[in-house]
């Protein structure tokens, strides 16, 4: 007779879920490393009462942060790595209080290996002052060798971490200028945003549903100047199709949920071939504004747009200028729940990314005009002639 341990079928999913969760937690513990963050000459030291004097006379113990400074001073590869990314290519030796290069994993370069490790700096409230600004600098500056280097921006050593953050453009600064911002939009292109709203709620929030609409005087454009200047039959056909689509007059196929569009153009095998066909020899033709006006690439998703823009920008021979947005929560009490790096990772439709790379000669589109003048208008295509640190 054979005896076996049998359990009810409803217990099987429980054991699978619990064991799988425990395995994930153990795997996360092995890959996630908590990184110390302390101000200069502020370190937690634990000692017994009878050896207090000996501890006071001894040198302060090394931490993951101070050892990171020493690593950046002696290791050329670490000089290009952020503090939070160090665990990917280095392991922390708790007994020796030093960072050691990984010996296994994906090879990045000769003698450097990378693993799926995570470094985490505990979130800090902006109310804690210098600690918050120091954390912000550590998340933005790769390869610092000291606290003083973190406060040094463009050769100038600032007195506080906050001043260094302001110099790097990591914080809002109202001292530059004060201006009034005017926001305008085309309701046909950008509908009002109603959280969890139905189609009827969105229509009700449009300008046409306002009591002021009867006071608005409408002017209709009758000639598509872009098509007229091109004298291209295909462009005229495409423009007419867009008008019919906007008026809800497009042909449907089998069901009103499907829209039949005309077939334009020639398929391309990949993005590189598409870029070469639309923008051939862009490195020598980017200064030809007429040549640029005749070309554009449309994409259904913002990720595809960002990828195409990045590939085209790399082909321009001019210098890259990087600009970062300032993101913060309205209520400082919620800053711990929503750290700055999380806010920076959010990409909002209709707004530039957190890190914006620009080059002189690059064509850009004006999303929002902050001038109360007829020109420039939202959606105007412009050419970058100069990249400055501040804009007035």
UniProtKB/TrEMBL annotation:
Domain DNA helicase Pif1-like DEAD-box helicase, first and last residues per copy: 183-254
The enzyme's E.C. designation: 5.6.2.3
Classification via InterPro entries: DNA_helicase_pif1-like_DEAD, Pif1-like_2B_dom
Reaction equations catalysed: ATP + H2O = ADP + phosphate + H(+)
Pfam families: PIF1, Pif1_2B_dom
All copies of domain DNA helicase Pif1-like 2B, residue ranges: 341-384
Cofactor list: Mg(2+)
GO biological process: DNA recombination; DNA repair; telomere maintenance
Superkingdom, taxonomy of origin: Eukaryota
Keyword GTP-binding recorded: no
Molecular function terms from GO: 5'-3' DNA helicase activity; ATP binding; hydrolase activity
Key words, A-Z: ATP-binding, DNA damage, DNA recombination, DNA repair, Helicase, Hydrolase, Nucleotide-binding
Top EC class for this record: isomerase
PANTHER family named among the record's database cross-references: ATP-DEPENDENT DNA HELICASE (PTHR10492:SF57), PTHR10492
Family membership noted in the UniProt record: Belongs to the helicase family.
Name listed for the protein in its UniProt record: ATP-dependent DNA helicase
Biological source species: Elysia marginata
């Amino acid at each position: 007779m054979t005896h076996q341990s049998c359990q009810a079928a409803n217990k099987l999913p429980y054991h699978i879920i619990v064991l799988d969760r425990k395995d994930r937690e153990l795997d996360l513990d092995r890959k996630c490393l908590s990184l110390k963050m302390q101000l200069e000459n502020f370190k937690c030291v634990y000692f017994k009462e009878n050896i207090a004097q000996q501890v006071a006379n001894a040198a302060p113990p090394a931490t993951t942060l101070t050892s990171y400074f020493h690593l950046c001073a002696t290791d050329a590869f670490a000089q290009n790595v952020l503090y939070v990314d160090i665990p990917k290519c280095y392991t922390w030796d708790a007994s020796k209080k030093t960072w050691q290069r990984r010996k296994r994993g994906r090879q990045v370069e000769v003698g450097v290996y990378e693993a799926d490790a995570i470094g985490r700096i505990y979130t800090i409230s902006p109310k804690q002052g210098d600690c918050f600004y120091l954390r912000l600098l550590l998340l933005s500056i790769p390869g610092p060798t000291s606290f003083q280097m973190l406060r040094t921006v463009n050769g100038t050593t600032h007195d506080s971490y906050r001043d260094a953050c302001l110099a790097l453009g990591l914080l809002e600064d109202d001292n530059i200028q004060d201006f009034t911002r005017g926001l305008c939009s085309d309701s046909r292109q950008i509908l009002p945003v109603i959280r969890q709203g139905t189609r009827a709620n969105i229509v009700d929030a449009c300008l046409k549903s306002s009591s002021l609409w009867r006071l608005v005087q409408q002017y209709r454009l009758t000639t598509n100047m872009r098509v007229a200047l091109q004298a291209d039959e295909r462009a005229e056909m495409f423009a007419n199709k867009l008008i019919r689509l906007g008026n809800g007059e497009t042909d449907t196929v089998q069901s009103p949920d499907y829209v039949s569009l005309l077939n334009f153009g020639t398929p391309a095998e990949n993005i590189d071939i598409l870029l070469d066909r639309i923008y051939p020899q862009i490195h020598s033709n980017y200064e030809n504004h007429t040549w640029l006006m005749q070309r554009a690439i449309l994409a259904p998703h913002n990720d595809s747009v960002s990828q195409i823009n990045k590939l085209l920008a790399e082909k321009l021979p001019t210098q890259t200028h990087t600009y970062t947005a300032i993101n913060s929560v309205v209520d400082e009490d919620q800053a711990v729940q929503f750290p700055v790096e999380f806010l920076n990772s959010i990409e909002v439709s209709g707004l530039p990314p957190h890190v914006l790379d620009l080059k002189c000669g690059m064509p850009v589109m004006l999303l929002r005009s902050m001038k109360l003048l007829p020109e420039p208008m939202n959606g105007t295509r412009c050419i970058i002639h100069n990249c400055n640190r501040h804009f007035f």
